[in-house]
Amino acid sequence: MYKYYRVLLAAVAIALVSFTSAIADDAAKTKAIVDHHLAAFGAGDMKEVMADYEETSVIHVPGAEFRGKEAIQALFAGLFAEFAKPGASFNLTNMVIEGNVGYIVWNAETADNVYELGTDTYVIVGGKIAVQTLATKVMPKK
């Protein structure tokens, strides 16, 4: 009987190592996608930003959603226009990656607004952002 427990214990240990390794792999892939996304946004590169999404992707913001690449691109067109003005800054204050979920906290300033607090959550499926949430506390300068 003791022999069976040892075999069972060994099987559980192997399964846990495999599971932990898979989570670490997911986290590394998720971080790479979030890093790419932030770099593309910072560069104002619409093509690279949109490469992170699929046609089925959705971004949820308080009171609205942007579903599909066309709607998502329209959202980013507005953000790019605002952040392209002289003096814009973006400060990433925290990033947490857990498996296929990335979470960032940030603040920013543009010619028009002070973003006192911003948060994004990214759910990565198949190497793309499947679902994103975005919430901000914005104070207009004028």
Commentary on this structure:
With 142 residues, this protein is α+β, with helices and mostly antiparallel strands. The protein has one domain: Roll (Nuclear Transport Factor 2, Chain: A). It is built from 3 helices and 6 strands. The protein has a 6-stranded mixed β-sheet with strand order 2-1-6-5-4-3, with helices on one face. The N and C termini lie far apart (77 Å).
List the main descriptive attributes of the protein structure presented here:
Nuclear Transport Factor 2, Chain: A, 3 helices, 142 residues, 43% helix, 6 strands, 6-stranded mixed β-sheet, alpha+beta
Topology:
Blueprint: H1 2-42, H2 46-50, E1 53-61, E2 64-67, H3 69-83, E3 89-98, E4 101-109, E5 113-125, E6 128-140
Parallel strand pairs: 1-6
Antiparallel strand pairs: 1-2, 3-4, 4-5, 5-6
CATH topology label: Nuclear Transport Factor 2, Chain: A
SS-based structural class? Answer: alpha+beta
Q: Which second-level CATH architecture applies? A: Roll
> CATH first level: which class?
Alpha Beta
Q: How many structural domains are formed by the residues? A: 1
Q: Give the rounded overall mean pLDDT.
A: 89
Give the termini distance in whole angstroms.
77 Å
Main beta sheet, described? 6 strands, mixed
**Which parts are unreliable, with pLDDT below 50 for 5 consecutive residues or more?**
none
The total beta strand count reads 6
Q: Strands of the biggest beta sheet: in what spatial order?
A: 2-1-6-5-4-3
Q: Which term fits the overall shape?
A: globular
